[in-house]
Amino acid sequence: MIDTSQKEIWFVTGSQHLYGDDTLKQVAKNSQEIVKGFNTSSLIPITIVYKPTVKTSDEITAVCQDANISKNCIGIITWMHTFSPAKMWIKGLTILNKPLCHLHTQFNAEIPWKSIDMDFMNLNQSAHGDREFGFMMTRMRKKRKVVVGHWQDERVQKKLDIWSRVVLGWDELQNLKVARIGDNMRGVAVTEGDKVDAQMRFGFSVNGYDSSDVVKYINKVTDSELNKLLVIYEDSYELTTSLKKGGDQRESLVNAAKIELGLRKFLEEGGFKAFTDTFENLGELKQLPGLAVQRLMADGYGFGGEGDWKTAAMVRALKVMNTGLEGGVSFMEDYTYHFTPQGSYVLGSHMLEICPSIADEHKPSCQVHPLGIGGKEDPARLVFNTATGSAINVSLVDMGNRFRLVVNEVEAVKPAEDLPNLPVARVLWDAKPNLEIAATAWILAGGAHHTVYCQNLDSEYMEDFADIAGIELLVIDERTTVRDFKDRINANEAYYHMFQHRF
Question: Where would I find the L-arabinose isomerase N-terminal domain in this sequence (predicted)?
Answer without folding.
Answer: 8-173
